[in-house]
Amino acid sequence: MSLNQKRRVFLKGSLAAGTLGAAAGLLTPGAVLAAWNKNAFTSKHIDEAIASVGGNPVTTPSKDITIKAPDIAENGAVVPVSVATSMDGVDTIALLVEKNASPLAAVFHLQEGTLPDVSTRVKMGKTGDVIAVVKANGKLFSARKGVKVTIGGCGG
Amino acid sequence: MTISRREFVRLMGLAGAAGLLPTSAFAAARKPSDLYEIPKYGNLCLMHITDCHAQLNPVYFREPSVNLGIGPARGKAPHIVGKNFLQHFDIAPGSIESHAFTYLDFDNAARKYGKVGGFSHLATLVKRLRAERGDGNSLLLDGGDTWQGSGTAYWTRGKDMVGACNLLGVDVMTGHWEFTYLDKEVISNIGDFKGEFVAQNISVNEDALFDYRFPDFAGFDEDSGQAFKPYTMKSVNGLRVAVIGQAFPYTPIANPQRFIPDWTFGIQDERMQSVVNQVRETEKPDLVAVISHNGMDVDLKMASRVSGIDVIFGGHTHDGVPRPVEVSNKGGKTLVTNAGSNGKFLGVMDMDVRKGKLKGYRYRLVPVFSNLLEADQEMQAYIDKVRAPYKDKLEKKLAVAGETLYRRGNFNGTFDQIICDALNKVNDAQISLSPGFRWGTTVLPGQDITMDHVMDQTCITYPETYRREMSGEEIKAILEDVADNLFNPDPYYQQGGDMVRVGGLDYVCEPAQTMGKRITNMTLDNGSKIEPQKKYVVSGWATVGAKSPGRPIWEVVADYLKEQGTVKVKKLNTPKLIGVEGNPGIAG
Question: Are strands A79-85 and A65-68 parallel, antiparallel or unpaired?
């Protein structure tokens, strides 16, 4: 068996385990669903969305938050975004897309001791900032990064 | 630089006495130096070609008269043209170098000095320098855009260029238009390439990793997810030289993603830093070089953010820059070069490297004048063989040029106007759109326009044309989008390439404005205002998102040319510019 075949088997195996894990309650999807915050995700305004997640709309810009996202999106429908921070006591990381009709794209609730480093893909209709809001020790911090969404073509 | 320049002039006398130069070259007021006597310096020579766009034969190529720098880039290399360029780089007006690097007096100088480039002439120069530097003391690097741009490259899916590069002895390359063939063709071409293909900034995307189609490709690293080898170590004159690859970061945006669905790109400068760190820590290199297809503005920014790179050999933006830019960063300094296009130049970087440090360098961007360099017989035989099956088709005369036909420049070139006019006429449209590529060769007044020329201007793997209705608002959105890719003051948001070319449409452009505010006063050729809600019939080609239904653009242009006899541009749809007075990037 080549290395790669092994890897594929491993990946399939780990996927299966993941499904099993979820069924066995390890990933507690029910709890996540229970926490679904309808107001936050349908909110049309950034401040409102942040307030729905964090309790108030005021955040402090922080250099300790790193957002990884492309400068120009290869596909606006699935823009890969990662947020990591060196802060302690992080319990929530929220991701907002400034120019989307409903800006809130994701909220991650972290258990104590979880490394604050999350990745997802967001949909972006047009050029604008991706905003990360981190709740640590009851305080809200934020960072932003511009992502350009272009019709493409015409490159040299 | 000064010393070597003096030496060229002296050696030029010797070369002239030996009868190496044609008499016409002596007619210049200032005798051209023998461009090809390049004194040895140091202990390592890195030669660099880039963006030849598959031009195997010599061509004419006019450098731009508009290459605007906006914001911090204003007035800085490479955004300088014409007389400002000569002044900035200390080049004598009327000299052979002035012709090589600028558009000034183009027609006359082109007739006097003849064509540029051609792989058989380039091969002679490369062999000569290799011999002069001593066996094993040099490397030949290729920045990419090598497999695309001619009829033969298109019909052989890039294989003709792989063969030519193998003969030329390219040691390491990276790519951009290479990725406009199907991914399996890219993999096959790299397999046939005898040098190494490097690119630190291309990964297999997460979905594709589950069942990757090229698991056995040697460059693929399943742990890092990188699709190609990020760097290679070369032993040159006893020195350990690292060559890191940086492919064009926006390939799946500027070109069709559908041909290469599994690969994801991006600038990835953090990863570049970690590759440099890893190379410095584990490989004990004497020199760290990058071959980049970022484009010069992006390279300059990357060089300021990433430390530990000695030199970036750049391409993509087709800037013929005679002197490297020294960029400071927290690790020291990084040299950034850009080596022009269409086979016109060979970058020659001689370096003195001692104890793992770059102590000094001499750089020359050497123009390849085919009349001054004999054709290498082996390469010429190869080119003739490659072209033989297509020769009749390619050399077919379609019309005669009534004026200089060129493309390069921020806005419509004359050849672009012909393409736009052809689209409007043949496809019965009001407005035409044509991409602002920077490749495409030049035709002199009175010269026959052949199918070769049309293919030089249009040859891509997604050549299909379209004719469709668009609202005024949509047309403006396209213009704004492309203008931002060109004039965004932050290079990381630029894609390279020039402004979309238009036919039947005039507009006002203010490059220093922000996105959405650069384009105003759009009118049809008859002066009537473009209404945002009104529909217009638009024709174009090179659609990136999905395949268009129409005939390939070269058929449309050929049909149009055959009806013309002698071709002259009736009206150049170049925009009225605001806020560019005194900008050294535009002809005064």
Answer: antiparallel
From edge to edge, which strands make up the β-sheet containing B448-450?
Answer: B448-450, B397-401, B566-567
Q: Position of tokens 């990020």?
A: B230
Residue of higher predicted confidence among B507 and B11: B507
**Residue among B206, B267, B481 with most chain A CBs within 10 A, to mutate:** B481
Q: Which residues share a beta bridge with B567?
A: B401
d(CA B277, CA B556): 51
DSSP assignment letter at B38: -
CB pairs under 8 A between A and B: 89
Whole-number CA gyration radius for chain B: 23
CATH number for domain A38-147, candidates 2.70.70.10, 3.100.10.20, 2.60.40.10, 2.60.40.2470: 2.60.40.2470
Q: Which of B214, B288, B194, B203 is nearest to B251 (CA)?
A: B203
What residue type is B267 in one-letter code?
Answer: I
Q: For B423-479, write each residue's pLDDT tens digit.
A: 999 999 999 999 999 999 999 999 999 999 999 999 999 999 999 999 999 999 999
Give B25→chain A minimum CA distance, Å.
33
Percentage of chain B beyond pLDDT 90 is: 92
Record the tokens describing residue A9, joined without a space: 């088997």
Measured CA to CA, the distance from residue B145 to residue B459 in angstroms comes to: 13
| CA–CA separation, B395 and B567 (whole Å) | 18
A152 touches chain B (CB under 8 A): yes
Q: Does B152 touch chain A (CB under 8 A)?
A: no
CA angle B511, B512, B513 (to 5 degrees): 95
Q: What is the average pLDDT across A149-154?
A: 78
Cβ atoms B248, B212 nearer than 8 A: no
pLDDT tier, A36 (very low <50, low <70, confident <90, very high otherwise): low
What is the model's pTM? 0.90
The SS3 assignment for A19 reads helix
DSSP secondary structure code for residue B240 in this structure: E
Residues 525-544 of B with CB under 8 A from A: 542-544
Contact (CB<8Å) A4/B211: no
The larger pLDDT score, comparing residue B143 to residue A24, is at: B143
Distance separating alpha carbons of residues A56 and A97, to the nearest angstrom: 18
CB contact under 8 A, B266 and A4: no
> CA of A62 to nearest chain B CA: how many angstroms apart?
20
What ipTM was predicted for this assembly? 0.85
> In this structure, are residues A137 and A89 in contact, taking their beta carbons and an 8 Å threshold?
yes
Asked if the C-beta of A44 comes within 8 angstroms of chain B's C-beta atoms, the answer is no
- B525 forms beta bridges with none
